[in-house]
Specification:
By secondary structure, the protein is α/β, with parallel strands linked by helices. It has 25 helices and 27 strands. Helices cover 39% and strands 18% of the residues.
Length: 700
């Protein structure tokens, strides 16, 4: 393509987005020509590289401001910007509100934290989430009939998960609504939607583009804009034997003349967040405001935390994964990680929050064991070496059919006749799910009293679905059962948090790092006030998915310790042996089950046991793994399935699938062919003395 001349190509948006910088960043130079030309485009670049402006400015020029812009009489959304979290929706809205107001372009946002979108005066640019997009499709699909472009932000966070499957279905539904409207207006063939996706650096951008951008692009195949680079990672590791070590570490870093005034502490569970925040209150040896942030805290309270932390001059915020993404919380000098995050993606998101205005990202790693120390080291090596990270890239996850259950419910809510036919579900389902499977899903929902049969070839909602819809529980594929209680201030009634744990009057608990007492309760609410007593009866508990270490991280740990690919280390003891497989949580559990069934079938269950995600305890040594037995592997996987299912991200409607399909879907996510490949290639070695000592430290 010809070199971009910014002022000529961006006559309306240059001043609003780029004039203060005087030039374009590399990702902007490469992406803007493709988007201006109408190409489906995947923009992959590091944090703070200008991806948002690279996308929104040319879309505004093409569809709302330039000579080819739509000139309709009625207001309608032209650009839909889909973000992974409600907080990012609000943050992006605030980032774009000023420039778009100056361009006289209306901007709106819709998420679970906002009110509905006006159907009479909808904005030209709408920022939302997949779940709110689903809700909009059911309530007012006509608002999307004139949509011209969709932006998928942070697509790497959707890809490979149930929300990514949901998003693919929603894109199909939007395309159908648009095509129907265009044909009714005499436009045939319909003009496809321009799709644009933004991502952090990903190893296989072409595959991501095929999954999300292959929607009959108006200008050929998707363009890939990939810009490498990123900030240097400056990591320090300090063992965390107790929370007093955290206090000491924070004090040392604050006093080391590193210019650290604001620290973001990440934990892996909400309960850890509460415990650490409660411990830090009153124990820090320096003056600092202390904040707590996680998803169950009420939206208004989360916003107070984000604003307070951003404005504070010296502060610490203890957070779960909710602050991994680019929410505006001001300049962060230091990031501390209590325990290693579950994946490389999560690590990069967390450490990327620090040092955004410098060339260095500081991170304090706080392992609580030798095993966590090795996991930290392996993740940091992957983070600093893209070629190495590509070797340990997770396999693409197959589509989860539980999303089709949710789509049935949503399509019924959208239907003007109150019923759906097989063709309606066929339009959103992947080709690998044929009509026979789709009928099985629909008929099973009839058996469960979510659907009832209508006219010939038609299904309609039954009472259980009406109940779900009344509670607005049909738009999301994540989460668990409806929340049992809302925590409110006993005197003002202000909502503080949500929880599934219902406490009795007089009980105390930790929330937001503070001790609270239940003053009153009714069916759905807990009224609380600050407690006078010094110790809590408990920390308020939240439902948290099991923490499963993926096989890719396990293999990276083996490589860090010096094991060759496909090697397992076997250490013989006086009464037992320890097998270091480094296959992660799921494959480690399956390996244990296969070894017990093959070698010690008459012994009690558990004679082969998992000591951690990287090793097994065996009753005796062995020279090699038993020969591969496909039937035995499938049998043991079926037996293990109830235990491993919660870690597979199968979607909240998975239990409503026909049993055989539900099991098959779970089995496919386990990727037994990959396990077989690892199993057949595995060789057992006796580690040298130095490695043997390192390995034994992992189980102490």
């Amino acid at each position: 393509m010809e070199p971009l001349r910014p002022r000529d190509h961006l006559p309306h948006t240059w001043s609003a987005f780029f004039a203060r910088h005087g030039s374009l960043t590399p990702v902007q130079e490469q992406a803007i020509p493709f988007i201006l030309a109408g190409r489906a485009t995947l923009v992959s670049a590091p944090t703070a590289s200008g991806k948002t402006e690279a996308v929104i400015a040319p879309l505004l020029e093409r569809y709302l401001l330039g000579p080819t812009a739509a000139r309709g009489d009625e207001p309608t959304p032209h650009i839909l910007y889909i973000c992974p979290t409600r907080a990012l929706v609000r943050d992006l809205y605030e980032q774009l509100a000023g420039p778009l107001a100056g361009l006289n372009v209306s901007l709106g946002m819709k998420s679970g934290d906002t009110g509905p979108v006006s159907t009479s005066q909808p904005p030209a640019v709408l920022i939302t989430t997949p779940e709110s997009t689903d809700s909009l499709l059911t309530r007012a699909p006509r608002l999307l009939a004139s949509l011209q472009a969709v932006v998928l932000d942070e697509i790497h966070l959707f890809d490979g998960g149930v929300r990514g499957d949901h998003l693919r279905c929603l894109l199909q539904r939007i395309e159908y609504v648009r095509a129907y409207s265009q044909r009714a207006a005499g436009v045939d063939p319909p003009i496809p939607l321009q799709r644009v996706a933004l991502s952090a650096t990903v190893p296989e951008p072409e595959a991501v583009a095929r999954r999300f951008l292959a929607g009959d692009s108006p200008a050929g195949e998707a363009a890939i804009v990939a810009v490498s680079g990123g900030r240097q990672i400056e990591a320090a590791t300090q063992p965390l034997y107790g929370l007093d070590d955290l206090v000491i570490a924070l004090a040392q870093r604050a006093g080391d003349r590193l210019g650290i005034y604001k620290t973001l502490i990440f934990c892996n569970t909400r309960n850890e967040v509460e415990q650490i925040a409660a411990y830090l209150r009153g124990r820090l040896p320096f003056e600092a405001a202390l904040f707590v942030h996680y998803s169950n805290v009420d939206a208004a309270r989360r916003r107070e935390v984000e604003d307070g932390f951003a404005q504070a001059s010296v502060a610490i915020c203890v957070a779960s994964s909710t602050l991994e993404l680019g929410i505006d919380i001001g300049s962060i000098d230091d990031v501390a990680l209590v325990g290693p995050p579950p994946s490389l993606t999560s690590l990069l998101q967390r450490i990327g929050r620090g040092g955004r205005h410098t060339g260095v990202t500081r991170v304090l790693c706080l392992p609580r064991s030798a095993l966590e120390d090795v996991r930290f080291a392996a993740l940091l090596e992957l983070a600093s070496d893209p070629a190495l990270a590509a070797r340990f890239q997770p396999a693409a996850s197959p589509f989860r059919p539980s999303v089709l259950v949710q789509q049935v419910f949503s399509l019924l809510k959208q239907s003007p006749t109150g019923g759906i036919r097989l063709a309606d579900l066929r339009r959103v389902a992947p080709d690998e799910y044929d009509d026979t499977v789709l009928r099985q899903i629909l008929d099973h929902l009839v058996e469960l009293d979510y659907l009832r049969r209508g006219g010939l070839g038609e299904w309609r909602p039954a009472q259980r679905l009406h109940d779900l819809a009344d509670r607005h529980e049909i738009y999301s594929n994540i989460g668990a059962d409806p929340l049992a209680a809302v925590v409110v201030d006993a005197f003002s009634g202000r909502t503080i948090a949500q929880t599934r744990r219902v406490l009795a009057k007089g009980e105390t608990f930790l929330l937001d790092g503070k001790l609270l007492e239940v003053v009153w309760r009714d069916r759905y609410r807990l009224g609380v006030r600050p407690a006078a007593k010094q110790r809590s009866d408990e920390t308020l508990r939240f439902m948290t998915a099991p923490y499963a270490v993926p096989v890719e991280v396990g293999q990276a740990m083996a490589a860090h310790l010096g094991l060759a690919p496909n090697q397992m280390a076997l250490i013989h003891g006086a009464e037992h042996a320890v097998l270091f497989h480094f296959w992660g949580s799921l494959y480690g559990a399956l390996l244990a089950a296969i070894l017990q069934a093959s070698l010690w079938p008459e012994e009690d269950d558990g004679i082969v046991s998992s000591l951690s995600e990287v090793c097994l305890r065996l009753p005796a040594g062995l020279a090699r793994l038993p020969a591969w037995d496909e039937f035995l592997a499938r049998q043991e996987l079926r037996r293990l399935m109830p235990r491993v299912e919660p870690s597979l991200d199968l979607g909240r409607f998975h239990p409503l699938l026909p049993p055989d399909l539900a099991y098959l879907a779970a089995q496919v996510q386990c990727d037994l062919p990959r396990f077989e490949q690892l199993y057949r290639a595995a060789t057992l070695v006796s580690p040298p003395a130095g490695l043997r000592s390192q390995l034994l430290e992992l189980i102490e």
